[in-house]
Specification:
alpha/beta; Rossmann fold; 5-stranded parallel beta sheet; two-stranded parallel ribbon; globular
Length: 204
């Protein structure tokens, strides 16, 4: 199990390893987390197929993970981010080319959000970006997921965050603690998803 900064380091480790290498997180993606997220969506929605998922914030490793998921499971995925913070173009192209999902990248936090099943956000400054925190706060100032954003999504929307959250920054306290929030179920599901990964790599 490797939790690293550079995705290239993970690929090098896997190249030389004689056992399975699990990606615990890199600057490119976070597959263990998105498995827990998929389980959470299954729990409250009953199916992943056709889920409308709107990610509001940085086009980061979580967005790349959802794009990769969207290449194998049909969904409607939107990344709403400020200009210059879009997800990796090659990963967006890969997800679109798979032909299963509708993939949209917009620069308006509530663009295409109406009817969303999931409104998802993450910290604005991820690992290795803390020196950019103040600049990012300015760039993302209109991208806080608050009651107004959730209202634009609709009463069916559930709020998700991979945690830990910076309350009052990328999301408001009122949203985290609202009935629409499933962040604590989501956190619990990381344990179940990781158990499943271990069983799979052990062939059990």
């Amino acid at each position: 199990m490797a939790r690293l900064f550079a995705h290239s380091d993970l690929l090098e480790l896997a190249k030389h390893a004689h056992v399975p290498v699990v990606n615990g997180l890199t600057d490119y993606n976070h597959p263990c987390q998105v498995l827990a997220d998929a389980l959470t969506i299954l729990e409250f929605r009953g199916s992943l197929d056709g889920a409308k998922i709107n990610f509001v914030g940085d086009g980061n490793n979580m967005v790349h993970s959802f794009l990769r998921l969207a290449s194998i499971v049909p969904m409607d995925f939107t990344c709403a981010c400020p200009p210059g913070y879009e997800p990796d173009a090659a990963t967006v192209a890969m997800a679109k080319a798979a032909g299963l999902s509708k993939i949209t990248v917009v620069n308006d936090p509530v663009g295409n959000i109406a009817g969303a099943d999931v409104v998802y956000t993450d910290v604005w400054a991820s690992m290795g970006q803390k020196h950019e925190a103040e600049a990012r706060k300015k760039a993302f100032k209109n991208f806080t997921v608050n009651r107004k954003v959730m209202a634009a999504a609709g009463t069916q929307a559930r709020f998700m965050h991979c945690l830990p959250a910076e309350r009052g920054v990328e999301c408001s306290d009122s949203v985290v603690e609202s009935p629409a929030s499933v962040v604590f179920d989501q956190a619990e599901n990381r344990m179940h998803a990781q158990n499943a990964i271990m069983l799979h790599v052990l062939g059990l």
